[in-house]
UniProtKB/TrEMBL annotation:
Keywords: Signal. SUPFAM superfamilies: Periplasmic binding protein-like II. One of its GO terms (molecular function) is ectoine binding. Residues 1-25 form the signal peptide. This is Ectoine-binding protein /hydroxyectoine-binding protein. It comes from Neomesorhizobium albiziae. One of its GO terms (biological process) is ectoine transmembrane transport. InterPro entries: Ectoine_EhuB, Solute-binding_3/MltF_N. Residues 39-267 form the Solute-binding protein family 3/N-terminal domain.
């Protein structure tokens, strides 16, 4: 709410009357800054179908596409993306290198403590990419932990890395892999026994690889279904709230489903839960 002081003279006696006005754009200084800047700087990972950068630099993927529409409705015409490792996204946001993370950064309590998440956008289970026939019979991260010779690749600072470590896979057997193409190649070359990303990301890699010697294990047993939200810097809650208002309108109108479902995501899944629930999940 904004206070406005009104000076009024009655019989020469000046009086200050403070009135409380409804929230105005002035309360959303960050949004005003982005509007005058003309773009919002978004962090992405370039992991289709969540996020993608074409050879000509065009940014797409379900998360940036939702964010682009919302920012346009808020009066910010463009988004400008920079590629970041998942583990660097929150530090980059906090350091002011990004205005928002729109990358499929799954909501988990420790991340919710560090950023201001929007309501849910993209939900997915986890998957393992293995050699055809799944020779080591992996169904879960625990299975990989039990096999003392097994190695798993995962994004640095990503959810799959954390799940593998929490399941008991020793640090030296969890290999940080910079991107999906590298993970695919490392499985194909037998340098890792499994590569883990969310289901839709692994399926996209396999579809493009067109390699009959690969197999997808999905969902990974024991791993939860996660949802992301747009992640804003703590302190930018007014911008997050404005984003949420437009996100709710998109969900209500059916436009949200029209954006995310062609990428394979379920609009209903995102609409069936809340940031509150996901940020307090055990
Ligand atoms: O939020 C994460 O950590 C995970 N999200 C995606 C979309 N891919 C991998 C990453 O580990």
């Amino acid at each position: 709410m904004r206070k406005l002081a009104i000076l009024s003279g009655m019989g020469g006696l000046a009086a200050v009357i403070a009135v409380t006005l409804p929230s105005t754009a002035q309360d959303n200084a960050k949004l005003e800054q982005l509007k005058s800047q003309g773009f919002a700087r978004v962090a992405i990972a370039n992991e289709p179908p969540y996020t993608a950068v074409a050879a000509d630099g065009k940014v797409s993927g379900a998360a940036p596409d939702v964010a682009r529409v919302i920012f346009q409705r808020l009066g910010v015409p463009e988004i400008v993306a920079s590629i970041s490792e998942y583990g660097a996204m929150i530090p980059g946001l906090q350091a002011g290198r990004h205005d928002v993370v729109t990358a499929g950064l799954f909501m988990k309590p420790e991340r919710c403590a560090a950023v201001a998440y929007s309501e849910p956008v993209l939900c997915d289970a986890e998957a393992l990419l293995v050699k055809k026939g799944n020779p080591k019979g992996f169904k879960s991260y625990a299975d990989i932990a039990k096999d003392t010779s097994a190695t798993i690749g995962a994004p640095g600072g990503g959810t799959e890395e954390k799940l593998a470590l929490e399941a008991g896979v020793p640090r030296e057997r969890v290999i940080v892999v910079p991107d999906g193409q590298s993970g695919l190649k490392m499985v194909q070359d037998g340098r890792i026994d499994a590569y883990s990303l969310p289901v839709l990301s692994i399926n996209d890699l396999v579809k493009k690889a067109n390699d009959p010697n690969l197999q997808v294990v999905a969902p990974v047993e024991g791993a939860p279904v996660y949802c992301d939200g747009a992640a804003f810097k703590k302190g930018d809650e007014a911008l997050r709230d404005a984003f949420n208002v437009e996100l709710a309108k998109l969900k209500e109108s059916g436009e949200f489903a029209k954006i995310v479902e062609p990428y394979g995501f379920s609009a209903a899944a995102a609409m069936s839960t809340t940031m509150e629930k996901l940020c307090t999940a055990k």
